Amino acid sequence: MTDSEHLPADDSVTSARGGWAEPSSTQPSNPPVYQTTAFDLDGLDQLNAIVSGQQHGYIYTRDGNPNQSAFADDIAKLERAEAGAVGASGMGVISALLLSHCKTGDHVLAARVLYGRTVQLLQQLERSFGIEVTFFDATDPNSIPDTIRDETKLCLVEGISNPLMEVADIPAIVNAAGDVPVIFDNTFATPILQKPIELGAAAVIHSGSKYLNGHGDVMLGVVAGSRYLIRRTRQFLALFGINSNPLESWLASRGLRTLPLRMRQVSVTAQTLAEWLETVPQVERVYYPGLKSHPSYEIAQRMLPHGYGGMLSFDLAGGKPAVNQLLKSLHGIIPFSPTLADARTTLSYPAGTSHKFMKAEERAAYGIADGLVRLSVGLEDAAPLQEELGTAFKSL
Ligand SMILES: *Cc1c(COP(=O)(O)O)cnc(C)c1O
Question: Is the peptide bond between 141 and the residue preceding it cis, with omega within 30 degrees of 0?
Fold first, then answer.
């Protein structure tokens, strides 16, 4: 059977080119999703012009796509960076950034308390590629100069650490690191509460899966920094195929529109809950930078003048059995969910999820107790959250 016997020729063309509407004389009020693998070129001159950077244009979505550029450029603007790039996830951009700047024999400085997977990634780079890592105490910037070597390429720190919410003194760390570029993971504070680049950081990375999107339905990462750093990182994102889907960036851009409102709201609710938790007899200790009792309170006054964010942790007096009982006694408003920065308040258990990869003694040394519970405060009012937790505490 020939093609023409199978279908009338026009039908094959119509089918193969399906989905195109007449161009509108009006602009859409929202950007379209550029859900396309490639972009058609009008000839070799245009191909050369785009590849050489003389003309702005896209060719293949692994290398670039308007939805990705829109989101990356907005984050760069908010972070006061020259440029930005997106990747498949927070881990994707951290991987690309590290691998594009470090080779075998190089050395990386990293804060002792980091997102669990970031620590695991650094350990893996050490084992697989011989990139050496020294972990330092980010609350003691004076310890940094002694760890710097000729081979030190980067210093990696989180603005607000997970899960004890220690706040980094960014100018002190940047100063102590000298010529070594400091990369800040700004996932917890977002550029609404903190702009590390203004304080001397070389670049900022984010899990876009968290507050930037804010609705718990996206996997995305974004990095913002100098044009040079972003160009290199972007090359590795494309080369290793750690690129993201256009729809993820489109969704994250939609989430971004409410970011200032959301960060203001979670900061107010988290402060209320943290102060209340300090009065609860079943709670031994509360970790929130907005509390006078927190070791980082002084630094937080300087680093987070617009609010302390939505992340808080607390130690239950009864340890792991009390955590187990607490989870059984929550009745549906606060789910046990191993993520953060959803619109809903979620609860997680660092010793069993994000920091499970550590040995028990290691966790204890970091201050991550078996009774430690982390709350990612969402957009609900404080009262129903307090009621849900209060009822569960009474069962302990
Ligand atoms: C979630 C998270 C990451 C990793 O981001 P993914 O998008 O989950 O890959 C990195 N750093 C921090 C602080 C995070 O919370």
Answer: no
Q: Which residue has the tokens 């893996």?
A: 124
CA angle at 163 for the pair 263 and 388, rounded to the nearest 5°: 65
Identify the pLDDT of residue 3: 52
> Cβ atoms within 10 A of the Cβ of 113, count?
23
The predicted-structure confidence for 300-318, as pLDDT tens digits, reads as follows 999 999 999 999 999 999 9
Pocket residues: Cβ below 6 A from ligand 1: 89-91, 115, 117-118, 158, 162, 185, 187-188, 207, 209-210, 219, 221, 340
Query: Between 354 and 310, where is the model more confident?
Result: 310
What mean pLDDT do residues 119-147 have?
A: 96
Give Cα separations from 245 to 69, 242, 249, 259 (angstroms). 12, 10, 7, 21
Dist CA 152 CA 144 (whole Å): 11
Counting every residue written for the chain, the total comes to 396
Residue percentage of the chain with pLDDT more than 90: 87
Instruction: Work out which ligand 1 atom sits closest to the CA atom of 219.
Output: 7
Q: Is 27 exposed, middle or buried (0-12, 13-18, 19+ CB in 10 A)?
A: exposed
3-state secondary structure (DSSP) of residue 183: strand
Backbone angles phi, psi at 110, to 5 degrees: -140, 140
Question: How far is residue 61 from each of residues 34, 38, 86, measured CA to CA in Å?
Answer: 9, 6, 12
Cβ within 8 Å of residue 376, ≥6 positions away: 310, 311, 339, 340, 341, 342, 345, 346, 347, 348
**Which of 119, 161, 187 for a ligand 1 pocket mutation test, highest count of atoms within 8 Å of Cβ?**
187
- Over range 127-143, report the average pLDDT: 96
Q: Tell me the pTM.
A: 0.94
pLDDT tens-digit series, residues 241-264: 999 999 999 999 999 999 999 999
In ligand 1, the atom with minimum distance to the C-alpha of 162 is 13
